[in-house]
Amino acid sequence: MNYWLEASIEYANQRNYLDNLFQVYPTIPEGLRDIDDDVWETVTVAFERGDDIRLLESLLRLELFPIKDSYVAYLKKDRDAIRRNPATVSRLCGRLYELGLNKIYENSSQPKETNRQIGPMFRNWVNKKTLGLLPTGIDRFMSTTENAILEASDAASMEFANRYLNYTQNKGLDFVARFNGKYIIGEAKFLTDIGGHQNAQFNDGVAIFGQQNLRAIPIAILDGVLYIKSKNKMHKDITSTLKDRHIMSALVLREFLYQV
Questions:
Q1: What's the pLDDT tens digit per position in 6-34?
Q2: Which has the closest alpha carbon to 66: 26, 85, 39, 29?
Q3: Residue range 98-113, pLDDT digits in tens
Q4: 0.90 exceeded by the pTM?
């Protein structure tokens, strides 16, 4: 098994892994969403008058619609569709009237889901010099052969890797660096559960290993439930078909970089 993968599994199972991981992914739920007083006033008036169209139009102005329904996204993108689809409007508003104003307000002000906040956390952690270097912009990164971490958007990182490292996948990168004259590129994921969307995130994180002829060392910086010794798909994969790949926790990344 790859040394860094084995070290990550051992770290997760024998040390205060979650306590230390919180430095990388401080997933503190955000406060309740603010609801504009003027918008809420129009919601209240429309609700009390039974004005379906105005009720929907007003609620669609909020960041979070109070009920989950597959047709809401369409109405958000095409407000004119509200007046063209009376049966859909009636169906949605029937559910809203059943909820009542208090529950509508409560649902619309729910905080963002934690997993939607995770994306930039790894990059924020890297930007705190936790890996021994402050990330640098593309011009500085290219003007030296010294150890460096690229500070760039997903798209800019992808463009750099496309142009110089023979990276051909059409997706951004969370990490691009150069240590001891070698380039390292990879994805960072915090896998908080097993199954469904999290399996898709895992597959996305390890997709880089399918890339041929890279002029860089591909890595997957993965954290979370995949290191729990069990029969879940992710753990099976990392201990079988992917056992020789550079899969590692963010918590061992610094040690990996300086010995690469």
A1: 999 999 998 899 999 999 998 766 667 88
A2: 39
A3: 999 999 999 999 876 6
A4: no
